[in-house]
Design brief:
The structure holds two protein chains of two kinds. Chain A is about 45% helix and about 15% strand. Chain A has 31 helices and 23 strands. Chain B contains 18 helices and eleven strands. In chain B, helix 7 runs antiparallel to helix 8, helix 7 runs parallel beside helix 9 and helix 14 crosses helix 16. Classes of the chains: A alpha/beta, B alpha+beta.
Chain lengths: ~775, ~600
């Protein structure tokens, strides 16, 4: 069965977020909630949820127009419309009675064979289907989304004994392909996987901070990056989730966990937390939490609560030798004798032992547990991957030394570990004691798997070329932050040479990587160094080299498909503009942001974006509209906050694809590249007849207007002038035909002029030091 | 017997003609410090150095300091000279008027330091160390400490020291063992004091008979100190505890255990100081002593560079005199003084090479010192914060270059001075060998020159992605660009442009390789620093040459006239510099490029 429409019941944060994301998948969604007493608009809860979401950052919708796919309604007037839905998601309060009554009402109107799922995080499925009639239990499952549903990749799915396999398959397939989720099958156990382990981990972390006398910022400095956990660590995470939520979660776990579950032993409710919740110090949504920003004479000061005194004080930069030592690996961290090392040891020993004891109780495989923690808590490594980093033997020995029980599964892993690579394939240790291949769904092609199983076709300090099969070559950036540099340019040239005319061993090139961001452009620090020592000829040569390489990519006699995910900014965005097609992950954030550092795009970004607007068939007539459009996009450093938004800005074109699931991106890009390779012809050269000074004058008026209104700073105006010079064609007129090379030369000249400006240098410096643009 | 004449003419040229000394008087606080006033001060200073300090230089070296029963006696005449010195107000030359100083620009202090170092470097050590102590207390001391100590340091009745080095550690101060424990008592200092125990060595001016009290600034560790340099605190420990009225009171627990017998600066007392439960007070914050120490150290490093310049200058003056006087052999192309028994040796190309090398380094260094001195004044007083930062960046960048390159050149120059004298240079009568011996320490103390090179490549280069470099590379690059079309300057602009480009490339190379492997930066550091110094001096020589050309043109157009020879000489020395010294940059570029392998490839056992 295919899911073509959906309904969500409950327009709270989770319900409305799920509805928005279903709309992101392109299907119509009915969003229902109760009718509040005396409401004039009987669907006000759903309607206002949609309105609110249009103002929320980060946005639940990938594009504003997706909001139109969500139809607000209420449970009294619109219940019958549930019959339109293939999938009904319940996301109401965590009260079994409320849910039970609701299910009966749903069951009465829903279409036969439609699927009903609950977003519960605490109530067992067995309890939810209790007393429901007919075939309800066969069509019912739990789909546990994480907040915020658009961005958190984990979806925990629990099927009951009676749930139809086709129903599970339909939801799983849809969630995977259309919602982009990593679906993890869980057993019907309290807290499922992620929250079961996550709650234990948080509790262990809070306990150890009190017991070992760490400040909250010290604890988070240890239980953050060094453990491969987001830098919020534990206390920062609780602030994010809400302190007041913690007692609810623990109570529901205490109500349902087995009597001998170790969580019971470590559960505590420190007086300080109770007091903070009572005082409204519930975290980021409240008046502050473990951290808060206070204003002192206009300056924002970050404060943290002192776990001893319970009073706020200025945060100190934690200086722990153990955190330094962690660069040498996780083992170096947990073996370090300082309090940071002892903290890490305490938290990890408890959490990893707990996790190891839960397989196969809560999940069939360690793979599922690791994936749940990676996708649901954004850990870089799941618990079993962490154990492998420490060494299964080391952990078992350490547990024994502490007099703690060694779980049977960990004993099984002694001397070998939970994962291994065999014949180039990643394998995991199954509970039976044998290794098995880590399963990959059909249509998933991971570059990491390719890399595990083969040697690179070529490699240098910042990039590599991989054979991803069927004659497709994949260019991967490997530099720090995927910054673009001379090595990458050389590798692009190499790839162009290798693929040749596209009729030999290689047919097409895909540009893709599995980094957090596709590329945020050049390494600004290295660029600034060159600027500081005044290496102008070399800088100009690098600009020219970038232009040439990108142009060579654009005109290569074989298809080039970029497959970005995350940020593609500056030179990273310019690269997309020079590819034949882009197969973008839905969460792609593209933009030409050079003006933020006082520059204009110098690697053909101006040229390509202008050309796209020029040749856009839907554009109004005359030379000014395309120039003005490109001027606005580049001049205000617009960043598309999704692949869908990137289409509006012409960073993506018709024919470019969007993939919801990151794991499927490379396969989709490869398929697209092969499709193009069939009868490929490079793009025809575009000839532009630009107006020159008259257009520049028109843009100057715009700039002056901005200046007068205080919307542009002095240097904004200088940079915009430069941009106007490029986009208007420089010293030309409509009778002259300008080629790409002419525009590149113009782009380069303006870039070189701007890069020497002291205020541009100040912008670059400020960006590097603060991460924020300077408006000077 | 050597002679000395302070190079006032050249100083005037550099300050007023190459640079704009008048701009100093536009800085707030320096309104009265016009070029005329500064010139008058320097003339007085020159006289003091020529007439009072210089005559004691050779005798002081001969006699040395004497250590008897814990007391150090300076050589004959030093006490009287010191009295004259402080009576002239020279200890407070650039000091804060609030504490009795004259508040003159640092630029003036710089010039005086050169004169003093030429005349009698050993003598200069005593007020020099006081100035270091003054700087640290002025910047980091409490109001109480400033009120108590600064007026005495400024008027010279007390002197100061910097106590860093210990028997087992010098460069690596994180290892110091001197301890400070709170003594619990208030002792009228407001914040409670400390008891300092430990041994410090190589303490210049640590003990002597010139002043009624000595103010030691001591690095020590508090009981709860973190490991390494993050756990060092700075204390002020007076030899005599000051009474409430500011007069020296009871003797503190610090005593001189011995003085060192050294290669040079023999009239400067280099002491072993034993602190035993000595009363001290914290200066600045606990564990932040390195920061405070660097306030002293940065100024001191520049001062050491200037010491080198001073020694090279006096060596040059006497070498020239000798080369003119000494008749020996004939010029290679035939007699130049046929009426005399032989030609003066100055006719010989190689003697000229030596003399010109000395002079070109010296005058280039003097100009660079002026640029840095003026920048220190701008960094302190320019009303525009960006301009202050820029000037401060330039000073920070150039400090290791000034320290190491000037002193390396000075050692080269003083050796050439001996060489020109032949055997007479090697015996003591002519005084030339003393300059070599005195110069030798300048390459070592205040951070050995190898450490300066590491500071340059390891700290100054990468700081804020090369921000410090910008304030050297951009002005030089711009200066060259603006003169590309000037055919009259082409003979200077083109070679400097080539050398400058090499320096840019070397900078990028060192930064890039150093980022990946610090050993690479270390291996290139000394060669790179020298390249930097040569290019910086090249920039100075370009500016001096173009200034001289401009002045000649002005004089030809009806100016005052009379200085043609001076300016023409400048242009010729510039030519020498660009033809014979600057090209070292090419070889250094190759050695920088050679990387770490030739150094690190040899196993320690193989040496």
């Amino acid at each position: 069965m295919e899911i073509r429409s959906a309904a969500v019941i409950g327009a709270g944060v989770m319900g409305s977020g799920i509805a928005a994301h279903l709309a992101n998948a392109g299907i119509p969604v009915l969003l229902l909630d109760i009718v509040p007493a005396g409401a004039a608009d009987r669907s006000t809860l759903a309607r206002s949820a949609i309105d609110r979401m249009l103002k929320t950052e980060p946005a639940p919708f990938m594009h504003r127009r997706n909001a139109k796919l969500v139809t607000p309604g209420n449970l009294e007037d619109d219940l019958a419309r549930l019959a339109e839905a293939d999938w009904i998601v319940e996301a109401v309060v965590e009260d079994p009675r409320v849910k039970s009554e609701l299910y009966a009402r749903i069951d009465a109107v829903r279409r036969p064979g439609s699927i009903v799922s609950s977003n519960t995080s605490t109530i067992p499925l067995s309890k939810l289907v209790e007393g429901q009639g007919g075939r309800f239990a066969e069509d019912f499952l739990i789909t546990h989304f994480f907040n915020p549903p658009r961005y958190m990749r984990l979806l925990e799915v629990v099927a009951g004994e009676r749930t139809r396999p086709e129903a599970v398959e339909a939801v799983t397939g849809f969630a995977d392909r259309s919602l982009g989720k990593g679906v993890v099958r869980c057993k019907d156990r309290p807290g499922f996987i992620a929250n079961r382990i996550g709650t234990f981990w948080i509790q262990a972390g809070i306990n150890a901070a009190f017991d070992l006398g760490l400040t909250v910022e010290e604890a988070d400095a240890v239980a953050g990056r060094p453990m491969g956990v987001p830098k919020t660590g534990i206390f920062g995470l609780v602030d994010l989730v809400g302190l007041d939520l913690m007692p609810h979660i623990s109570r529901s776990l205490l109500d349902t966990l087995p009597p001998d579950d170790p969580y019971r032993a470590i559960h505590r409710e420190p007086e300080l937390l109770r007091r903070m919740i009572a005082e409204g110090l519930t975290g980021r949504k409240g008046k502050g939490g473990f951290y808060r920003l206070s204003r002192e004479g206009g300056a924002r000061v970050k404060e943290a609560i002192d776990l001893g005194t319970g009073r706020y004080r200025k945060t100190g930069k934690p200086r722990l030798d153990s955190v330094e030592a962690a660069r040498g690996g996780l083992r170096a961290l947990v073996e370090h004798p300082d309090r940071g090392g002892r903290y890490a040891r305490s938290v990890l020993l408890q959490t990893l032992a707990y996790s190891a004891a839960l397989v196969p109780e809560i999940a069939d495989t360690v793979v599922a547990v690791d994936e749940a923690m990676r996708l649901g808590y954004a850990w870089k490594y799941g618990p079993f991957e962490l154990i492998d980093r420490l060494g299964a033997d080391w952990l078992a020995d350490a547990l024994e030394a502490e007099g703690m029980a060694v779980p049977p599964l960990l004993r099984l892993a002694r001397g070998r570990g939970f994962y291994r690579v065999e014949g180039g394939r990643l394998q995991y240790l199954a509970t039976g004691g044998d290794y098995a291949d880590v399963p990959r769904p059909e249509g998933v092609l991971l570059l990491s798997d390719v890399k595990r199983g083969s040697a690179p076709v070529a490699k240098n300090g910042s990039s590599a070329l991989w054979d991803v099969g069927d004659g497709v070559l994949c260019l991967e950036f490997t530099s720090k932050m995927n910054a673009l540099d001379a090595d990458i340019m050389a590798m692009i040239r190499k790839a162009i040479g290798l693929v040749g005319d596209g009729k030999g061993r290689w047919k097409a090139l895909v540009v893709h990587n599995e980094g957090e961001n596709f590329s945020v452009g050049v390494n600004l620090g290295i660029a600034l160094f060159a600027v500081n020592i005044g290496l102008w000829p070399q800088i100009e040569q690098q600009v020219e080299e970038g232009q040439e390489v990108y142009e060579a990519l654009r005109t290569a006699p074989f298809p080039v498909v970029a497959a970005p995910s995350g940020m593609a900014l500056g030179g990273g965005c310019e690269l997309l503009l020079h590819c034949d097609r882009v197969q973008a992950h839905a969460e792609t954030y593209a933009g030409l942001v050079e003006v933020g550092v006082g520059l204009v795009p110098g690697w053909g970004g101006c040229k390509e974006l202008l050309t796209r607007h020029w040749t856009n068939r839907r554009r109004p007539g005359g030379p000014m509209p395309p120039i003005a459009a490109a001027f606005e996009t580049i001049g205000t450093a617009k960043v598309a906050k999704s692949a869908a938004e990137a289409r509006d800005l012409l960073f993506l074109r018709d024919g470019d694809g969007i993939t919801m699931n990151r794991d499927r991106l490379l396969a989709d890009a490869k398929a697209l590249a092969l499709k193009l390779a069939g009868d490929y012809a490079p793009p025809e050269p575009v000839e532009l007849r630009l107006p020159g000074p008259t257009a520049r004058l028109a843009l100057r008026l715009v700039i002056e207007g901005f200046l007068a209104q205080g919307r542009a700073s002095g240097h904004d105006a200088v940079v915009a002038e430069g941009l106007a010079e490029v986009l208007s064609g420089g010293d030309t007129d409509v009778t002259r035909v300008l080629t790409g090379a002419d525009l590149s030369a113009l782009e380069r000249a303006v870039f070189m002029h701007l890069v020497r400006e002291p205020r541009t240098i100040a912008r670059i410096e400020h960006m590097l030091e603060t991460g924020k643009p300077l408006r000077n | 017997m050597p002679t000395y004449k302070a190079p006032l003419d050249d100083v005037r040229f550099v300050l007023n003609e190459v640079f704009d000394l008048g701009a100093l008087a536009r800085l707030p606080g320096h309104e009265e410090h016009t070029p005329d006033l500064i010139e008058a001060v320097l003339e007085e200073g020159a006289k003091l150095c020529e007439n009072e300090l210089f005559p004691l230089n050779q005798s002081g070296d001969e006699e040395g300091c004497r250590f008897e029963n814990g007391v150090v006696y300076t050589p004959s005449g030093f006490k009287e000279a010191y009295r004259t010195y402080i009576e002239g107000g020279w200890t407070g030359l650039s000091a804060d008027p609030e504490y009795g100083g004259q508040g003159l620009p640092h630029t003036v202090q710089f010039v005086m330091e050169e004169f003093i170092s030429s005349a009698n470097m050993s003598f200069g050590m005593y007020p020099g160390l006081s100035l270091g102590a003054y700087n640290a207390l002025h910047r980091w001391g409490s109001e109480e400490q400033k009120r108590l100590y600064l007026p005495k340091l400024v008027d010279g009745t007390w002197s100061g020291t910097m106590c860093l080095t210990e028997p087992h550690c010098g460069t690596d101060l994180g290892m110091i063992r001197t301890r400070a424990v709170p003594d619990g008592g208030g002792d009228g200092d407001g914040g409670g004091g400390y008891r300092i125990t430990g041994t410090k060595i190589f303490i210049s001016a640590g003990e002597h008979d010139l002043t009624e009290n000595i103010v030691h600034l001591v690095l020590a560790k508090l009981p709860d100190a973190p490991e390494g340099t993050r756990g060092i605190s700075l204390f002020v420990v007076p030899k005599f505890l000051p009474r409430a009225d500011g007069t020296p009171g009871a003797r503190n627990g610090v005593a001189c255990g011995a003085i060192e017998h050294k290669m040079g600066i023999k009239a400067s007392a280099t002491c072993v100081l034993n602190f035993e439960d000595a009363k001290g007070w914290l200066v600045g914050e606990p564990h932040k002593g390195m920061r405070a120490m660097f306030t002293m150290m940065n100024a001191a490093r520049l001062a050491v560079g200037i010491q080198g310049l001073g020694l090279a200058e006096i060596s040059y003056q006497n070498a020239v005199a000798y080369a003119r006087d000494r008749l020996q052999g004939r010029a290679l192309s035939g007699a130049r003084a046929p009426d005399r028994p032989a030609d003066p040796i100055i006719v010989h190309p190689d003697v000229r090479r030596s003399l010109l090398t000395m002079r070109a380094y010296n005058e280039g260094a003097r100009a660079l010192a002026a640029w840095i001195g003026l920048s220190i004044d701008r960094a302190e007083r320019d009303p525009d914060p960006d301009a202050r930062q820029e000037a401060d960046d330039l000073v920070a960048l150039m400090t290791p270059v000034v320290k190491a390159f000037f002193t390396d050149c000075a050692f080269e120059a003083t050796n050439l001075g001996v060489q020109i004298h032949g055997g007479h240079g090697y015996i003591r009568d002519y005084g030339m060998e003393q300059y070599v011996r005195d110069a030798r320490i300048t390459q070592i103390y205040e951070g050995a020159n190898g450490i300066q090179a590491l500071d340059l490549v390891g700290r100054k280069l990468p700081q804020n992605m090369g921000r410090l470099l910008r304030h050297f590379f951009h002005p030089v690059g711009r200066h060259l660009e603006e003169r590309m079309e000037d055919e009259g300057l082409a003979e200077f602009v083109l070679p400097l442009l080539k050398a400058f480009t090499k320096l840019q490339q070397a900078t990028a190379l060192v930064a890039q390789r150093g980022l990946a492997d610090p050993e690479e930066a270390g291996a290139a550091s000394s060669d790179y620093l020298r390249m930097f110094g040569l290019v910086a001096l090249g920039f100075m020589w370009l500016r001096m040459a173009e200034t001289a050309r401009r002045r000649l043109a002005e004089e030809a157009a009806g100016g005052a006239g009379g200085r043609d020879a001076f300016y023409e000489a400048k242009i010729k020395i510039a030519r020498f510099y660009f033809a014979k010294l600057l090209p070292q940059v090419n070889a250094l570029f190759i050695t920088v490029n050679a990387g770490a392998k030739p150094l690190m490839d040899v196993e320690a056992e193989a040496f």
